[in-house]
Automatic annotation (TrEMBL):
<feature type="transmembrane region" description="Helical">
    <location>
        <begin position="212"/>
        <end position="237"/>
    </location>
</feature>
<feature type="transmembrane region" description="Helical">
    <location>
        <begin position="286"/>
        <end position="308"/>
    </location>
</feature>
<feature type="transmembrane region" description="Helical">
    <location>
        <begin position="101"/>
        <end position="134"/>
    </location>
</feature>
<keyword id="KW-0472">Membrane</keyword>
<feature type="transmembrane region" description="Helical">
    <location>
        <begin position="35"/>
        <end position="53"/>
    </location>
</feature>
<keyword id="KW-0812">Transmembrane</keyword>
<feature type="transmembrane region" description="Helical">
    <location>
        <begin position="243"/>
        <end position="265"/>
    </location>
</feature>
<protein>
    <submittedName>
        <fullName>Membrane protein involved in the export of O-antigen and teichoic acid</fullName>
    </submittedName>
</protein>
<feature type="transmembrane region" description="Helical">
    <location>
        <begin position="60"/>
        <end position="77"/>
    </location>
</feature>
<feature type="transmembrane region" description="Helical">
    <location>
        <begin position="361"/>
        <end position="389"/>
    </location>
</feature>
<feature type="transmembrane region" description="Helical">
    <location>
        <begin position="177"/>
        <end position="200"/>
    </location>
</feature>
<keyword id="KW-1133">Transmembrane helix</keyword>
<feature type="transmembrane region" description="Helical">
    <location>
        <begin position="155"/>
        <end position="171"/>
    </location>
</feature>
<feature type="transmembrane region" description="Helical">
    <location>
        <begin position="314"/>
        <end position="340"/>
    </location>
</feature>
Length: 398
């Protein structure tokens, strides 16, 4: 009679220990990344408070709409590079990184040309291009799963941007949104130089065949309209004050949901090497736990707001959007698996298909302002999470 594990069980046990060790390492990297991320986001929240106190909620609403425009333009153009940088060969990666930089440069140049024409167009294009240039510069770290380094660079840029803008806001008698925003985007011009140095020596190549590129652009265009179109629509149907309340809720939710993006990023390399095998990706239990914690954090913040003199509309919207936070966190993790599995059409169909659903809900619930927009966000993300989870975890029928 044999006591203890048989020789046949040893490889299984060793594999289980290896998975557990990798998960702990990824969690540690994610934790460090979150320290940098939330340091930067904390500065971002300080920036929000400064804008509201120095310029008012109406200017903040205008700023929020301009930022929403940048999110509608930049991420769709950058998405083919984001997806392919984590799964393609080294040769393709460096060539596509060069063209990624050129896309960012073009957008910044276009935005700069519109500085005296339209605030929303100028700021939106400049931030969109600056972010693409930054991601070109930091893409090596993202490809290798080093989320901590990605967010460290991002936080440094955020701190410098906010510091420059705050010096202006507190240093002049009659500050304007245009003046503060001009200093906020100044570091992007430094990033353009750094990204150019990284890209030099490599011949630019488009991110894949045209059909695939269009599919990946379409996927993120749907995502951008899905995530930011509601801000623009709500501002159009109501006023900049209501848009400001919802923008604040969305900013808090996005800050917490970013932990999912960072955690998923730590699995880029093993998922690329395995061809997207589920066993090499984020464990489901950890995905659920991270989603639950992010929901709880925003919900608690919303309850605290409800107990303070803060506007009731803002507090209630914050509590509701906590559910969106948790689901968006899990969606960010699951989409990394879908990237590696090359299930691009699935993501395109899901994200584009939900745009009219969400925006229709926002329009229908516009009479209750930011609360209605938060309800629409929760409902739409519940559908998207169900689609992603079913595609990944459903066992094939025989």
């Amino acid at each position: 009679m044999t006591i203890g594990p048989s020789p046949e069980d040893e490889p299984v046990a060793e594999g289980t220990r290896a998975v557990a060790t990798a998960a702990k390492g990824n969690l540690l990297t994610t934790l460090v990344a979150m320290l940098w991320l939330y340091g930067g986001r904390g500065v971002g929240m300080l920036w929000t408070v400064v804008l509201l106190s120095q310029l008012g909620v109406s200017d903040y609403g205008l700023y929020g709409m301009a930022f929403a425009l940048s999110a509608v333009i930049g991420p769709p153009l950058d998405n083919p590079y984001v997806v392919r940088s984590m799964r393609e060969s080294e040769e393709r990666f460096v060539a596509e990184r060069a063209s990624r930089f050129l896309v960012g440069l073009t957008l910044v140049a276009a935005g700069t040309a519109l500085v005296g024409v339209s605030y929303i167009a100028w700021f939106g294009l400049t931030v969109a291009g600056g972010e693409i240039a930054y991601k070109s510069y930091s893409s090596r770290f993202a490809r290798d799963g080093k989320a901590d380094r990605v967010w460290r660079l991002d936080s440094i840029r955020q701190v410098v941007s906010v510091a420059l803008a705050c010096v202006y806001l507190f240093g002049v008698d009659h500050p304007t949104l245009l003046g503060a925003s001009a200093l906020y985007v100044a570091p992007y011009y430094v990033i353009l130089v750094l990204a150019a140095l990284e890209a030099r020596g490599h011949r630019p190549q488009l991110p894949g065949p045209p059909r695939l590129t269009l599919a990946l652009v379409g996927e993120m265009l749907g995502t951008a309209l899905y995530l930011q179109g509601d801000v623009l629509l709500l501002g159009f149907l109501t006023d900049s004050r209501t848009a400001g309340y919802y923008t604040l809720c969305w900013t808090v939710a996005a800050a917490l949901a970013a932990v999912g993006q960072s955690f998923g990023m730590t699995y880029h390399e093993p998922l690329r090497l395995s061809g997207g095998k589920l066993s090499s990706g984020p464990p489901l239990k950890l995905t659920l736990a991270i989603g639950g914690l992010s929901t709880a954090a925003v919900a608690i913040f919303g309850v605290v707001l409800l107990l303070t003199p803060a506007p009731t509309e803002l507090a209630v919207a914050m509590i509701i959007i906590s559910l969106f936070t948790g689901m968006r966190t899990m969606i960010s993790i699951l989409q990394v698996i879908l990237y590696a599995q090359r299930r691009d059409i699935l993501r395109l169909t899901a994200n584009m298909g939900l745009v009219p659903v969400k925006l229709g809900a926002v329009a229908a619930l516009a009479p209750i302002g930011a609360v209605g927009a938060s309800i629409a966000s929760v409902g739409a993300d519940a559908i998207l999470l169900a689609i992603y989870a079913t595609a990944i975890y459903r066992k094939p029928t025989t």
